[in-house]
Amino acid sequence: MKRANTAAVKDGTNKKKVNPLKWAYELLYHEDVYRRMGGFLLWGFVLLLLSWVVGYFLVKNPILRESFFVRKIFGDRGLRETFGNWGLSWLGPQFKIFKWQFDTAATFNTWGNVLLITLKNYGHNLIVAFLFVFCFNHLRIKRFPLGYFFLAVYTIMTGLVIGTNSYVFPAQWHATIGAVVTFIRYGFWEWFALGLLSVSTLNWGLVASTGLLKPEWERIRPFGLPRFGDQDSKEVFIFGLLFLLAASFAEARLTVHYGNHLL
Tell me, what's the pLDDT at 1? Predict the structure, then answer.
C-alpha cells in the first residue's frame, strides 16, 4: 500500500484539484499586498468588462450622464478665467522663455486652471477614499471588508458609464472607442488608485459582524490608529495616493482642454 501511494504521488494522481474561483477569491485576502493587488485587478477587470457589456449592449442610452455619480466623480468641475488677467498684469501680453514666445493670457489660463483643478479634484478624490475606503475598511462582514464592497460598486458603475458613454466630456473618435479612451486617460488611474488604497488598508479592520443579516458585532483589534502590518502595504498605500494625484492631473488637463474651466 505504501509503495502504491508513493507511486500515485509521483504520478500526480493524488494532487488536490485547485478551484480557480476560490483561488482568485483568496487572492483578495492574501498576506502579501502585491498578490492582493493582483486579485483586485483580476476581479476588477471581470466586473468592468461585464458591466461594460451590460451598458453597451443592453442599456445603450447614456442614462447616467446627468446622475450624481457622473457629475461628482467624472464631472466637468471648472473654474472661471482669472489667471490670464493676473499674468497680463505681471508679464504683459506676451512673454518669452529662451527662444519660445507665449501668449500670456492663454498660457496662464490653461496651466493655472490645470493646477487649481488638479488640487480640487485631488481633494474630492481624497474625500471619497477617506469615507468609502479607509472608513469602510474598519468594518467587516466576517472577513469581507466593506471597502471591497464599495470598490465593487464603484467598478460596476464605472463600467456602466463607459458602456453607455455617459461621460460629460465629448468622446474622441467614435463614441464607443471614445468612451474607452476617456476612461483610460484618467478614469482608469482613479479606479486603480482606489484599488491600491483598498488592498493596502485591508488590515485596518476594527469590528466585524458574524454575518450579513446578523447584528452581532465584535471588536477584532484594539482601538487606536490603524496599522498597515508590513512595509509593502505602506508602499502600496503611498503608490495609491500618487496615482490618485496623477489621475487628478490627467482629469484637470481634460477639463481644461475642452474649455470647461471657463464655466
Answer: 47
